[in-house]
Input
Amino acid sequence: MMLKIVKYPEPVLSQPGEPVTEFDDELRKLVADMFETMYAAQGIGLAAPQVAVPKRVTVIDLSMGKDPEQKLVLINPEIIHRDGKQYEEEGCLSFPDIREKVQRAWTVTVRAQDEYGKWFEMDGEELLSRAFQHEIDHLDGMLFIFRMSALKRDLALRKIRKMQREGTW
Output
């Protein structure tokens, strides 16, 4: 089932997600719906707060649905190691038409649970590292515009306000 992706400044986007404690069919349905929604929006990552669910759940698929082996589900994730730096352009499904360079770690190690509650650790570098960091930021109530320089953030917020006035946001 397709879910509605909420846009900034929806309050759920700025609040930390609640830890998941029940790994049941309802959770697995949410995960499946999040993948369907993310693919329809042509994204590579989607966090539960972006679909107005204040839980620590995110899905990532760098292949955008082309390779089932690349589907990742991270529940209650945390970054346990960071190394290096990269400065690359990012976008966000909750900020359509806003793309900007932000600094992230080059590699990260995440610890998370799968949709059945099993803990695992996984390393990511380059794009996967950025996706991990971007989505976990969502779960912490941190939005990528607050990782931009003050000038770029101000320009992005002005663009959003203009689109809101025009009814296109």
Summary: The radius of gyration is 15 Å. The chain is about 25% helix and 25% strand.
